[in-house]
Write a structure and sequence with these properties.
Layout: E1 2-5, H1 11-19, E2 25-28, H2 34-40, E3 47-50, H3 58-63, H4 65-74, H5 76-86, E4 90-96, H6 121-140, E5 144-149, E6 151-153, H7 168-178, E7 182-184, E8 189-190, E9 192-194, H8 195-207, E10 215-218, E11 224-225, H9 226-236, E12 242-244, H10 263-275, H11 290-304, E13 309-312, H12 327-355, E14 358-363, H13 367-370, H14 376-395, E15 401-408, H15 414-421, H16 427-436, H17 445-456, E16 467-470
Parallel strand pairs: 1-2, 3-4, 4-5, 5-10, 6-9, 7-12, 13-14, 14-15, 15-16
Antiparallel strand pairs: 8-11
Helix pairs in contact: 4-6, 5-6, 7-9, 11-12, 12-14
Length: 477
Amino acid sequence: MVGFDRAPPPDGARAVFDALPGRFEAIVGDVTDAAAIEAAIRPGLDGLVLGAAITADAARDAAQPEAILAVNLVALVPILARARRAGVRRIVNLSSGIVYGRHGTAVPLLTEDAPVDPVSLYAITKFASERTGARLADLWDLDLVNVRLGAVFGPWEHPTGLRDTLSPQAQMAALWGAGETALLERPGLRDWVYAPDVAEAVLRLLEAERIGTRLLHVSAPTRWAALDWGLRLAALDPAFACRLAGPGERPNVLLHAAVDRDAEAGRAVATALEASGADALSLLSDVGDPDASLRDAETILARFGRIDILVAAAGWSCGGTVTTTAPADWDAVFRANVGGTWLWSRAVIPAMQRQGGGSIVAFASQLALAGGRGNSAYIAAKGALLSLTRTMALDYVDDGIRVNAVVPGAIDTPMLRRSFARSPEPAVPEAKSLARHAMGRFGRPEEVAEAALFLASDASSFTTGTTLAVDGGWLAA
């Protein structure tokens, strides 16, 4: 076995390789060096795994685009040319699920047929390397397969100067070793797959008699949270703590993604509706993306012919006061809570006007009316949402469009649990919140859904511009 990299393998990895049967040779070189590639790929090599890449973040995209393209894409051609001359039997080109872009979380299970939308230079060059490799393999009669990998984490991750996106698991392990608490912004829901499992898949592809396709997707069968991995690590060592960052705390574990979206949950709801005889469609998108709201509204109209009801329930909270909330977090909270309602109303109101009416139900919060501590951006955004509700109700009343808002109390949802998890002792804020409800319990999602259904239906036909509290007596207590 021959390993080719710009730096020697870590001592721990080298020790493992040396203990395996056969012989391991490590060659230090650069994939952009044609002479080094010529010397490394020798006649008699049976298989070739292409894994060299610069996994760049946005800052490196802007600063070093030439280097990213040179390593991730341009170097591929001389490597394949040399493999052809050396008679290499099979080539495995490691790509990435990042090429799916926004579509990567829009389906319950990724397959090779899922649409792609590469955005970063890493994603763009990986997709281009797939197409380039497949094209040259056809022209040069090479046995090549592209393998799109899920979010990989594993024991040999280390900073190389070329990888800006060390996995959250590797970051949490490093913090554990340093005796520091791991703080995450969100749970980090992705299709995480363990590197040794990826290696096993690649080995089987190298050994297979025939593959029969140019593209395979190798990943975990479902999405799971990086936070859960950290919590399991913390369970093994009581001296280590892993949790969501609280108000005023800066996360020290980077997730390399803007949001977590649970496509499986949306699809499960659609499946349940279909089982009851309804015609359902599940779409996953970013409510703060102007183009996405317009595109998704068009998809819905094409499928159903009309839009009668919009329930704007997407929300996000970061915690913090006006002096501890970062500007980016403030903007993100307003983008999801206020911007999402505005953009989706903007997308569907024209259809409602054409059909002679409709109903819009926005989701605010009891905190918008009562106030609260340590959640300034969220409370301000929900207050703005109430003002937007009243304004839209007046602007479109002549079109037969009613606009109202539900004001929930604390509802037992993952978002509520995440807000408690920001505290070093989650039970403390949970008890305080519970005590504020006159009914002595948290609300259930279906109780809020019933209120939204009332405002959306003709049962509230003489109601517009108002708010309906479903708060277990919070505002009255």
